[in-house]
Write a structure and sequence with these properties.
The complex is a heterodimer of chains A (402) and B (234). Chain A has helices at residues 2-16, 18-57, 84-93, 128-132, 144-148, 158-165, 208-216, 234-248, 264-307, 309-317, 322-358, 367-394, 397-401; strands at residues 61-66, 97-112, 115-124, 136-139, 153-156, 174-177, 180-188, 203-207, 223-228, 259-263. Chain A is of the alpha+beta class. Chain A has 2 domains: 2-52 and 269-401, no CATH class; 98-224, no CATH class. In chain A, helix 2 (18-57) runs antiparallel to helix 12. Classes of the chains: A alpha+beta (402), B alpha/beta (234).
């Protein structure tokens, strides 16, 4: 009862000193806004990365790219040599491969009537829905017969469907890829934008044999994905794959690989490193801002105590105990920092929303950040308040009143 | 009510050399008295006021309050005594700025367990004739009015003792007499008042004058006929 009364009184007093209170709040506003921004955008980015990785690799994927280099998009050496037979041989020789899908891509124009659009055309085997965990949302998929017979059938993405067909139903309609006529048999399940900013709905999937024979006229593939039964063994699998492919390609010791292999496990490791940066170093920056804010508040509070010596003396004279004075100043600092923290959460959230929109992230969720912000600002408030509160409570009443 | 027995207080200068502020001062104050403690600066009257007000402890001697020894109470008990039994009035008023008269008067009640704070505070302001100024801030009040707010604050907890340290020191003569008149009225209703002043004229309005000189009690006169504050100043 007495303490709530004192707390209300402290609040009222701070309201009377708006300028001082606002300056004390500022540090906590900036620190918590930074923290909120980093955490909510970081979380959204993390979700997006994990989703994309999940879409591309699943839990147990191994992707083999034609050309050397260790990373996706690494240098694709000349004389590309990865063939469907290589992958088929892997599947035959290596135990533990559940499914595999070769892939060849070309970016070319697709057309229906007067509408033309550039799209990524991917040639795949009939196993692609299983291997890539993607399917058609409407219409049909193509089967083994279609791949064997190089059928001119296409499954198109939502963007392609919208650009070429507008409001019409594309399923069953004719279209041209390059100059070759195809029949649309299905619509791809929507995917969204990938981390490179590519619209993965601006794609067309056709049987790989059709693509190789009628559109690109090459017998090498650009990549293949294997799904393994035991992801824990993916490092060993990778070594085995490397050995077999090197042997098949006749590479001698000292010659670099003319292919590259990435496993889901490796990707997860890389994502983990990115996460460490996001969730360790960036909040560290926010924490430093918050600490600076706390130091500023503590010193403002110390200055204000020097100005309020007579007030402290008076309070002691009229019956305040040391602990009452301590509580009052601790409350003033803590409440100020907490209020600043709440403001910071709001500001950080608004900035995060703007940032997320620009970065094509969705689902910015402020609750973790809000909770953390409230805790952090209260903690900094208490820490910043301790020294001034102790100083205030130590004052001798008779001397303070002089 | 109050009994000081051979109170002494020695301070240490920062250089370490001791300064005697009070020497063997004994003093007995009965309930209902209006005592002025007079002395020049350096006479020890502020030290005496701090000891009487339990804001400081004597180096030696004994302080009895209603027969109970309060010389070395623990700080929390001292604070409670100050809150419940003593009302302070200071030369510098010590009102909180940017805070209304009513809120200033409420302040001692915040540190007590009393209820109906607002009512008690209004009543105290009414008692010093400031019922129409309760929402004014110190900067909107005259010196005399500010000191009356301070008196209301001192009275709000209905203390046994009103302790006033140079309450007229910052006031012009008219306001000073106005304050003294309030004290005389309060004393008339049985309130015990100790007034500390260097001004013999102000002291003459009390019922008893205790003189201090260089830490010693040098005089104690009971005034036979108390000077009344001139009518026009009331």
């Amino acid at each position: 009862m007495k303490n709530t009364r004192l707390a209300r009184h402290s609040l009222r007093m701070m309201g009377r000193y708006k300028l001082r209170t606002s300056f004390m709040m500022l540090g906590s506003v900036i620190g918590i806004a930074a923290l909120t921004f980093v955490i909510s955008v970081g979380q959204a980015a993390q979700r997006k990365i994990l989703k994309t990785v999940g879409q591309m690799f699943g839990d147990s994927g191994i992707v083999i790219h034609d050309g050397g280099g260790e990373m996706m998009g690494g240098p694709h050496g000349p004389g590309t040599r990865l063939k469907i037979d290589d992958i088929a041989a892997l599947a035959k020789e290596l135990p533990g491969i559940e499914a595999w899908d070769p892939m060849q891509t070309i970016t070319t124009s697709v057309r229906h009537g007067d509408s033309t659009e550039n799209a990524l055309v991917r040639g795949e085997s009939e196993r692609w829905p299983q291997v890539w965990s993607r399917t058609a949302s409407r219409g049909d998929l193509f089967d083994e017969t279609a791949v064997m017979g190089s059928a001119r059938v296409a499954i198109i993405g939502e963007t392609v469907a919208k650009e070429l067909f507008g409001a019409d139903d594309p399923v069953g309609a004719d279209m041209q890829i390059g100059s070759v006529p195809f029949k649309v048999i299905g619509i791809l399940e929507p995917w969204g934008t990938d981390p490179h900013g590519m619209d993965r709905d601006n794609e067309v999937i056709v049987p790989i044999s059709t693509l190789m024979r009628r559109l690109t006229n090459v017998d090498t593939i650009s990549a293949a994905k294997l799904v393994v039964t035991d992801p824990a063994r993916s490092d060993e699998m990778k070594a085995e794959i490397r050995r077999i492919l090197r042997e098949r390609h006749g590479l001698t010791a000292g010659q670099p690989n003319d292919f590259s292999i990435i496993t889901a496990t490796e990707i997860r490791r890389m994502v983990g490193q990115v996460q460490r940066v996001l969730f360790l170093y960036l909040p560290l920056v926010a924490a430093i801002a918050l600490i600076v804010g706390g130091v500023v508040s503590a010193s403002l509070m110390l200055v204000s105590i020097n100005e309020r010596v007579a007030e402290i003396g008076l309070r002691r004279a009229i019956g305040a105990r040391r602990q009452d004075i301590r509580l009052q100043f601790l409350l003033e600092t803590t409440i100020t920092m907490l209020a600043g923290g709440l403001g910071g959460v709001a500001l950080g959230y608004v900035v995060a929303q703007i940032g997320a929109t620009r970065m094509h992230l969705d689902g910015v969720n402020p609750w973790t950040a809000a909770l953390l912000g409230v805790l952090a600002s209260s903690l900094v408030g208490v820490l910043a308040g301790i020294l001034p509160a102790l100083r205030a409570a130590r004052l001798h009443p008779a001397e303070a009143l002089r | 009510m109050i009994e000081l027995k051979q109170i002494s207080k020695t301070y240490k200068r920062p250089t370490g050399e001791p300064v005697v502020a009070l020497s063997d001062v004994s003093l007995h104050i009965d309930r209902g008295e209006f005592v002025a403690i007079v002395g020049a600066s350096g006479s020890g009257k502020s030290t005496l006021m701090n000891i009487l007000g339990l804001l400081d402890v004597p180096t030696s001697g004994q302080y009895l309050w209603d027969g109970a020894d309060v010389t070395s109470l623990d700080p929390n008990r001292q604070a409670e005594m100050r809150n419940k039994k003593i009302g302070f009035v200071f030369q510098a008023f010590h009102l909180l700025p940017r805070t209304t008269a009513l809120e200033n008067v409420e302040l001692p009640l915040l540190y007590s367990d009393r209820r109906s704070i607002k009512d008690l505070s209004r009543r105290a302001l009414d008692a010093v004739n400031l019922a129409d100024r309760i929402h004014h801030r110190p900067s909107e009040l005259s010196g005399g009015q500010q000191q009356r707010v301070a008196i209301a604050r001192a009275l709000v907890n209905e203390p046994d003792l009103l302790l006033a340290d140079e309450p007229t020191g910052n006031l012009d003569r008219t306001s000073a007499l106005e304050i003294i008149s309030v004290f005389q009225t309060l004393n008339g209703t049985g309130r015990t008042i100790v007034l500390i002043t260097h001004d013999r004229e102000i002291a003459s309005f009390a019922g008893r004058i205790v003189s201090l000189e260089r830490g010693y009690r040098v005089g104690d006169d009971t005034v036979v006929r108390t000077t009344r504050v001139p009518q026009e100043a009331q």
